[in-house]
Design a protein that fits this description.
197 residues; two-stranded antiparallel ribbon; Four Helix Bundle (Hemerythrin (Met), subunit A)
Length: 197
């Protein structure tokens, strides 16, 4: 491949990556609904998580992704993001009334793929929740399946389990990136759900 073709390919890939970054959901929290309902409240919690995740992961470097505090029990930032992806899979599967099938094999994704998939899961779950009826929560079961073994839990466990856990781990990513010398971008307002750029 000649130099000009290589440069053109590199520019194309860079612009494609930038376009994908700009298309990621939950850069800001959408306007709140006119009324309170179980679905609206839960959707807002998920959107708050997604907004925090978006900005906690914006601009992470390889150094940030490899950072982990001292100690054996701690994950790197990338491992923490992989865990958050798993939690978002559990959430979206419950809202889609699908089981979480554990095969024992982890899919290896790049940081960009992990980030995009997590945000897409959170966006999809929030849309389902926002449009659901109160009775739908009885069917939003958290189901774990490994072979013939199956465990089912009510959606209540989703709130204090995966959703709360994901919020906790997003806070870890924020702390880790600060510790590795790359604090979150300025202007992020988790209270308002918007960012001054």
């Amino acid at each position: 491949m000649n130099k000009l073709a290589a440069i053109a390919l590199l520019l194309f890939l860079s612009f494609t990556t930038m376009a994908q970054e700009n298309d990621l959901p939950l850069k800001e929290i959408p306007p709140y609904p006119e009324s309170y309902s179980p679905g609206n409240v839960m959707a807002r919690m998920v959107e708050g998580l997604g907004y925090r995740y978006y900005w906690a992961t914006e601009g992470l470097t390889e150094k940030d992704l490899n950072y982990k505090p001292e100690g054996e029990a701690t994950r790197t930032s990338q491992e923490t993001l992989d865990h958050i992806l798993g939690l978002s899979n559990t959430l979206v599967n419950a809202t889609k009334k699908q089981p979480n099938i554990r095969s024992g094999k982890d899919e290896k994704l790049t940081f960009e793929e992990t980030r995009a998939r997590t945000l897409q899961n959170l966006k999809e779950a929030s849309e389902i929740l926002r449009n659901c009826k109160e009775k739908d929560f009885d069917e939003f079961l958290v189901v774990f399946q490994r072979g013939d073994n199956k465990s089912e839990f009510p959606f209540w466990n989703m709130i204090n389990g995966p959703v709360a856990d994901a919020i906790y781990h997003v806070g870890q990513v924020v702390t880790f990136r600060r510790s590795s010398g790359n604090p979150m971008p300025k202007g992020v307002s988790v209270f308002m759900g918007k960012t001054k750029e």
